[in-house]
Write the structure tokens for this entry.
Amino acid sequence: MKKVKVISIICLLLNMLFSKNIQAQQSIANFVFDSTSTYILKLKDESELIGKYIGGDSIYVILKTTSVPHVEVPRINIAEVEKVNAENFRHGKYWFPNPNATRYLFSPSAFCLKEGEGYYQNTYLFLNSFNVGLSDHVTIGGGLEFISTFASIISGEGGPIFYVTPKVGFEVAPKVNLGAGVLYVSIPDFGENDSRSGGGIFYGLSTFGNTNNNLTTGLGLGYFKGDVGSSPFITISGMTRISRKTALVTENWLIPSGSFYAVYSYGFRFFGEKLAVDLAFINNRDIASGLLIGLPYVDFVVKF
């Protein structure tokens, strides 16, 4: 693929990420509140109110918070309304939603981004990707590897290593989600004709639990230059939230290589409402023989 096509793909992805879907946004002035639900009102001055809706009209919204029994908020001052799920309250304290529930370290869960949501992920400083929810059930992403990108700019040859990651996912039962997707990676051959090779994984996923505590099993078939592997990749990954801003995360692979080759990982995820940072270790029998705790892994995610 020519460099201009690569640039076009990146521009299209960024445009999808930052563009606003007007049909998906409901006017605050016409938002219909449910008297049995709790809401977060994000105000235009960047402050927030969390409380149960107890009344209102076209001008005001009235909430009952944990500290104030009656708060009137002008609708004109509200920038965003978010309904709070019961699972996000622990011992009377609000736990903001997990900002990075759709992915473990490398591999995804069956959860999808909501329509219009997106995030930027940086891994080891060199891998950079964007993902955006085209709908509540379809997520598409992609990114670049920086070393090959800079090398191609300097040399004028090859082009960057880039990847595309579309995924679909659905809740099929309470706390059961199924998903499927493709990881496609395009690699320059660094030949005279500036040709490229493509490969990746077709995969299916089953995720059990909610966005705070879950387990995902996955099966995938690798492919390269049109040839599809006969033995599947197997993944077993999990996450559990142990505090408001901390979770444990693990991702484990069985890679077909004659017999299966095992790779496992374990670590912590630290997060705020729009930011998540993973500090983990990747390990297996061969790595542990030289470095007992495994290879350090670091990434961060910024959600939009």
Notes: The chain has a mean pLDDT of 87. The chain has three helices and 21 strands. The radius of gyration is 22 Å.
